[in-house]
Queue: 3 jobs
Job 1
Amino acid sequence: MPVVHTIQPWRIALLVLLVGSFVWLGSLHTRMLIGNTLLAPGTLEFSDTLAPEAEQELFRTLSGLAVAGIVGYVITLGGAIAFLFLSPLRMRADGWLLMSSVLFFLFMPVELFTMSIDIRMIRQEFFTTAGNDVFRTLFLERMGALAGVPIIAILCYYTIVVLAIFQPLTQLQSHEA
């Protein structure tokens, strides 16, 4: 008799969480790399070596990546909430899950604030004919947002990955015969 396996909803939520986080964090890191090409090394001053057309194209790319980042974050947030409700893991027994959840949801206001700046950049790029000076202002606002807290958030997201891999603070369940 064939064995029929059913797909458990929490596994689907975990898959959604992973795919969303790859898109979101990939977009975030790509934007950081592209943003560094706009600035003079070691400063928050724009490079003089870029032509205005090249700078405009970089801002267009940053705006497109911001769309992917926002969509990825929304998918990650939905997957995380669904996973926490559907998973057989419990925060009381799995301390790593509690710590990961706290780190992720603690920085949600930071992400929402920086996304509001991204949305303004997206609106300027795709719905107006704004010049590079508007994008420069928004870019510097995004780079200096909340005095570096977004960088601390990125480090915490890496910590979540480490916690999920090594799973510290997991209570071992005693098996009585």
Note: The helical segments are 9-38, 52-86, 95-106, 108-127, 132-143, 149-166.
Job 2
Amino acid sequence: MTYQPPSDLESEAIVLGGCMDQASMSANATQTLRADMFYGEANRTVFDAVAHLASQDKPTDLTAVTAVLLHRKQLDDVGGAVGLYDMAARSLTFLYHRTAVRKVADMAARRHSIDEMRKAAVAFSGDDDYASTVDRTVDALIRTLPGGEVADPTEVSLEFYERLEGVKVQSFRTGIRQLDDLFTLPQGMLTILTGLPGSGKSTFLDWLIMRYAEKADARPVFFSPEQGPPSRHLVSLVHTKIGADPVGNRDRDAIEDARAWWMERTSWIQDDRDNTASAVLAIARTRAAKGANLLVIDPYNNMTPDHRMDRQDLYIQDLLRKVKRFARETDMAVVIVAHPRSVPLIHGTDSVYRVPTAGDISGGQEWWNHADLIATVWRNQSGEQPETYGDPAQVELVIQKVRDVGRVGRQGRVRFFFDETKRRYGMMDRNL
């Protein structure tokens, strides 16, 4: 049997007919498709003429397309004037046309994916590094995923009524009312956590995720090179779970229970090969398919750009766009830990630094623009003027930005005590 690549010539004909019938259909198609995405050779030729006219803001009707093909001496290649007329007669409603555009794009993506897999098969048979070939192939396959399009009006209306009725976004919550009223971890969204070095960002995040796992079945994936190898991070997580340092601890049953509890729901992405954004997100996507619902990148600057970029703001913009798209497509909650640059002292103090903001992170405007939530972990690390700024054991979570106020949180501050021995946090009026 002769192999037939995936295609849908009927959808291609509907797309072309619509392009030659209505300007709105032509605009929709040319924003999404390219000529090389059509499988039929004649269809590629006609769409190339349509795209040429659209790029010059000219009509793409039957007469105009016929003129272009005559000038290019390609009219006979598409079946002549009769063949072109038959294509134009295939126009349907805009709804059918939009569906056909999606179908053509999907078939093109599938063919491209097959080509990439064939290249990988050749590489696997040769002397190429196996791991590098896997990474390149996964990255190439991800790039075949369809891009943005006009929002589905039905989905827009449904979400509109959900908002009117106050339906909450699916978010992780700790069960601590004072915290959950201000800050949740919404699935499908991007949260940025910042703070001064030594403020306890990662420790706080470990405790927070433990609470989410206990109360809402969070299943995290960590890309946390600064935490060291997964085994070392697991020691810290077990410490948080049992409220005691497991190193040298004789309560082996409690330690083993905590270890098994974390291992059942947690995974780590290694950083010993490829730590580009595409590689990390590709691995996280495989974990999402197996039930993971929360990705932690701690910190972002341990990831490298997919491509050489001379400007850091462009790298951050590219990274955040990839991460936000990943969050939407997988419905995972994503947390990125981002260290601030130098932060000034509070006026009138010798060693108390002000609360860092998104603007203190390199490329600050990009963080502010792309993040759905931004929060800072802050404490008076020096202990100076404790009556005003708190002692080092008092920790504040400062919520700076909430894109969907009321549904996932709101701006404000919530204060905790930190018990270093237990590696746990508690509200001022609650037990650790």
Note: Residues 288 and 330 are 7 Å apart (CA to CA).
Job 3
Amino acid sequence: MSKIACINTKDIHILDHIAPLAHILDAPLYIEDKKNFDLVKTYYHDVNIIFQSPIEMFSLVKNYEILIENTFWMTADFYKLLNNNVKLVFCPHGNSDKGFIEKNLMTFYKNQHAVLLYGNQMVDALKKLDVFDRLQAYTLIGNYRLKYYLKFKEFLDKKVLNLLKNFNKKNKTILYAPTWKDLENSTSFFDLYPKLIKSLPKNYNLIIKLHPLLEERTTKEFYQIYEERKDDNVFYLSSCPLIYPILNQTDIYLGDFSSVGYDFLYFQKPMFFLDKKNRDPKNDSLALHNCGRQIPKENWDNIFEFIEKNESDSFKKVQKKYFDYAFADISLSTLKKNVLNLI
């Protein structure tokens, strides 16, 4: 019996989490969506991918000791009956500042056979929600995606530079990364997006990374306001799953509660946060930990003026400190040992 296999069903935005993990663990990546299969071949050329549609879970649970997914295992007990030795492991697809208002977002962690956690920030968040002590098993894995990016930096940077070839290199590049409309209604997209694309000045490049669930879960509301601006200084990141090489070309981060904000901490550059609900300061968030500048709702109409006025503010020391808090310093070899020890 083989040790580990990784799985992806249909979610494009999860590929950047599962493909690097499969490479690091030297595990096959089973994919049942043809588009995702082609994307992995294009951007993660070193990963051993197997196209199988639909993924035959019955055969997988018999042939592997660990199966890893980036979405929750909702039928763990059923699969456990098929093979008492298999462990169904959940790996998060990013850090999250969500889950404190609607706690059900985090309680699924305790239903997994094991979970992979980035570092102390995740541990503390689960403790605050009274979930950590109820985990069946866990291990820390650090920032494996960053390490993967640095390993293949030249190849991945070339891919992204080709996508952004129309950008004016003299402009500063802003990444807008709104989250989806979850149970906490965390997204800034529906309030900000129309203003953003209409007011974008020529002296900024703008990368727009829309969460796929914006369209999937709120389709009617999404298309009531969504239109693509066709200028050379705008790029819609929809069919490219890469994150860190995109962030490497980004000068300024603009987001609400997307986990991409945690990834951007590594670069120690200006960060701006959008929170229409003014969350309780007792809850964790990048904005409340002063990793960047919060943009008041009354400034959303002239957001680029606000950014230009405040982008020189430095939060580097806090960003470095919070990055180290969020991601444990774990080597790739130790990560692999930690995961194997779950067997």
Note: The chain is about 35% helix and 15% strand.
